[in-house]
Amino acid sequence: MGNVRPLFPQFNLVDYEGPAAIPVNQGVLESDAEKYGQLKGQLLKDALIAGLIGTAIAGLVSGFGTALVYFAGAIAGVGYLFFLSVKTDTLGSPDAKFGSSVSNLRFALPLIVLVLVAFQNIVGGDTELSLNNIFNSVTKEQFGAAMLGFLTYRLPLFLTQLFPLVGESAGMVLPGSAGIAMQMAREAKANEGNNKGKKANIFDEDLTTVFVVSGPAGTGKPELCKKLIEDSGGKLIKPTYLDKVSNPIVYEKLESRDELLQVDPTGRYALTKDSIFNSAGKFTSEDGEEKDQIIVIDADVKLTKKLTALGGIRLVGVWVGLDALDKFEARLDEEIQSGKIPIPVDETPDTVRRSKIRGIVKDIEYGVVSGIFEFTVLNDDFDESLKQLKSAADYCFD
Questions:
Q1: Are 44 and 36 spatial neighbours (Cβ–Cβ below 8 Å)?
Q2: Of 99-103, 161-165, 263-267, where does mean pLDDT reach its minimum?
Q3: Separation CA 67–CA 55 (nearest Å)
Q4: With helix as H, strand as E and coil as C, how does the chain read?
Q5: How many CB atoms lie within 10 A of CB 188?
Q6: Fewer CB within a 10 Å sphere, N or C end of the chain?
Q7: Closest to 364 measured CA to CA, from 309, 304, 274, 310
Q8: Residue 297, beta-bridge partner list
Q9: pLDDT above 90 coverage of the chain, percent
């Protein structure tokens, strides 16, 4: 009817004292300020060092004159960082406006370098000083050297961001146990400050070696692993499994925590971290030396990922596959026809085959990019594949 009324005629301001103040931890504040000061000093020092290195290279390549121009540009780059820190230091303070004004001088530094180079050229040459020809006297080589020198300050900034990525990627690039060892070394170094008085060294740990045979379905891994263990003479063993019937309380406890690494199709037996560590015993080698048995695990990709996240183990990985996708399809067809792969009521053999192939392709992608497999076996011939697998297993005893 046109009678517009506010939902609340007025706000209740009785006893309102304004927004609650955020508590500030002075210790943390002082610590952050100290870290910021160290970072700022490190950036300026790195920029200066990078400029000196670039100057030396410029001198070797193009001579003293070009090196001098490059050095002037590098000093301007250090000055750019300094004035930028002035703006950062005064941000949010009463001097913010003054700091912003002073920091704007950084934009004039490259121009000042070019003016100095031009002035040097005019003083040392026959050209008279005038506003019309002051920049014309700067050669292309000098301009390039000055700008490269100025931009040198960006190089340590870029490398500072790149090194952590390279460090993390290196563990992925290194194969198998080497990559896992590097990852553990990084974690030990990160935890070193939290364990005062204790030496963080991964090699002080008694690692359990686990021989992981992984790969897509349809490659014959189970048969290879079974024969490998049978022919090892007690050197290689299967892990023990937790029995749900004999240990129901432990089983349910680990299941509720999602700590079961793998469960067999019956749902009765499960692979756990403790069952891996408690499986290995001792055997006597041919030279009479007592050595630890090596645990062999036939693992799909899902289990392999869980094993890489476990601490206290040294993984030696073998990837078992086939050299063509057609061979995967042929083996899948055999298993579908034999009934090893059941066909759900709402699906057809063709849809099941396509689904399995998609999973195989995804598993192969993991095998290629994960970097945890030191050996690859293409199981076209069982006897030859077994021979290669035995050679890989010998690596566990090195």
A1: no
A2: 161-165
A3: 5
A4: CCCCCCCCCCCCCCCCCCCCCCCCCHHHHHHHHHHHHHHHHHHHHHHHHHHHHHHHHHHHHHCHHHHHHHHHHHHHHHHHHHHHHHHHHHCCCCCHHHHHHHHHHHHHHHHHHHHHHHHHHHHHCCCCCCCCCCCCCCCHHHHHHHHHHHHCCHHHHHHHHHHHHHHHHHHHHCCHHHHHHHHHHHHHHHCHHHCCCCCCCHHHCCCEEEEEEECCCCCCHHHHHHHHHHCCCCCEECCCCEECCCCHHHHHHHHHCCCCCEECCCCCEEECHHHHHCCCCEEECCCCCEEECEEEEEECHHHHHHHHCCCCEEEEEEEEECCCHHHHHHHHHHHHHHCCCCCCCCCCHHHHHHHHHHHHHHHHHHHHHCCCEEEEEECCCHHHHHHHHHHHHHHHHC
A5: 17
A6: N
A7: 304
A8: 212
A9: 14
Pairing of strands 313-321, 208-214: parallel
Q: What is the pLDDT of residues 287-298, one digit of tens each?
A: 788 888 899 999
Higher pLDDT, 22 or 142: 142
Q: Tell me: domain 174-232+296-397, CATH 3.30.565.10, correct? A: no
**Is it the case that residue 197 has pLDDT exceeding 50?**
no
- Which residues have C-beta within 8 Å of that of residue 107, sequence separation ≥ 6? none
pTM for the whole structure: 0.50
Give the Cα separation of 80 and 103 in Å (integer).
8
Cα-Cα-Cα-Cα torsion 106, 111, 114, 116, nearest 10 degrees, comes to -70
Sheet hosting strand 313-321, strand order edge to edge: 236-237, 294-299, 208-214, 313-321, 373-378
Domain segments of the chain: what residues? 30-157, 174-232+296-397
